Amino acid sequence: MAEKNSIFDMVGPIMIGPSSSHTAGVVRIGRVTGKLLGLEADSAEITFYNSFARTFEGHGSDRAAAAGLMGMDTDDERIKEALAIAAELGMVLTWRAVMNAATHHPNTVTIKATSAGRRVECTGISHGGGVISIIGIDGFKCNFSAQLHTLLVTAEDMRGSIAFISNIVANDNANIATMTVDRAGKNGVAKLVLEMDSGLENVTVEYLRHLKWVKEVNYIPQIEI
Q1: Residue 142: its pLDDT value, please?
Q2: Cα separation of 117 and 98, whole Å?
Q3: Same domain, residue pair 115 and 190
Q4: What is the C-alpha to C-alpha distance for residues 142 and 34, in angstroms, rounded to an integer?
Q5: Could you tell me the residue range of the domain that residue 128 belongs to?
Q6: Domain-ending residue, one of 112, 138, 164
Q7: Is there a single domain that holds both residue 95 and residue 55?
Q8: Is residue 131 located within the same domain as residue 164?
Q9: Angle at CA 23, nearest 5°, toward 133 and 13?
Q10: Closest CA to 157 of 173, 135, 141, 181
Q11: CB of 194 within 8 A of CB of 169?
Q12: 155 and 217 in one domain?
């Protein structure tokens, strides 16, 4: 079945330009990275691939990545000064450009952000119109848009764990729209990503965090991206 797009996907979001794919999409990938980090980044390495690698400075993708990490939205006027603002905050940013990465979509960026000893690696694709796909987190493959309520659970890869988590979510009256799972070896660690049509109560998220076999839980409400 062909993927359906809304008029907002085609026109794009209210944003600071010049390009919805090179600016707005990158802001949103940066915001996702910041939400996963959970802290204000003190440093980040941003790698642009293919088309992004050739144009990231001229199209403002570097400013967009920094802005997203600092929690700015796509229409924030401060995006234009994001690099200067980051420098004032003491955020150390480094840039890499990989011109011919055959395995990557032309508009791909990887952001490795650190803060207080914590590190997050997030890879995303910008499709245009501000629409993104997050395809990798900390070495795990995934595929979510950040347009829905999103729950990410890293846990021991035990029999029945996916069904258990899904049941907890269902008991909170949240309808699961998409699910992806990636495993780091049999009986190792797995990352489960659920996109949901409705949000979760804080008590549900905290319950999952306190399970002994759960390593980490991240929850990104729809409105925050």
Answers
A1: 96
A2: 27
A3: no
A4: 17
A5: 14-138
A6: 138
A7: yes
A8: no
A9: 75
A10: 181
A11: yes
A12: yes
Q: What contacts 24+ positions apart, CB below 8 Å, involve 116-125?
A: 116/39, 116/42, 118/37, 118/38, 118/39, 120/33, 120/36, 120/37, 122/29, 122/32, 122/33, 122/36, 124/25, 124/28, 124/29, 124/32
Q: What's the predicted TM-score (pTM) here?
A: 0.87
**Which residues does the chain have with pLDDT short of 50?**
1-5, 7-18, 20
Unique residue bearing structure tokens 């990503």: 193
What tokens does 213 get?
A: 């076999």
Supply the CATH number for residue 131's domain.
3.30.1330.90
The three state secondary structure string of 137-173 is: ECCEEEEECCCCEEEEEEEECCCCHHHHHHHHHHHCC
Cβ neighbors of 128 (< 8 A, separation 6 or more) are 12, 20, 21, 25, 107
Task: Convert the pLDDT of each residue in 166-198 to its tens digit.
Answer: 999 999 999 999 999 999 766 689 999 999 999
Which two structure tokens, joined as six digits, stand for 150? 């999103």
**Residues 27 and 83 both lie in one domain:** yes
Element (H, E) at 128: strand 118-128
Q: Return the pLDDT at 14.
A: 44
Taking alpha carbons only, the member of 56, 71, 54, 72 closest to residue 15 is 72
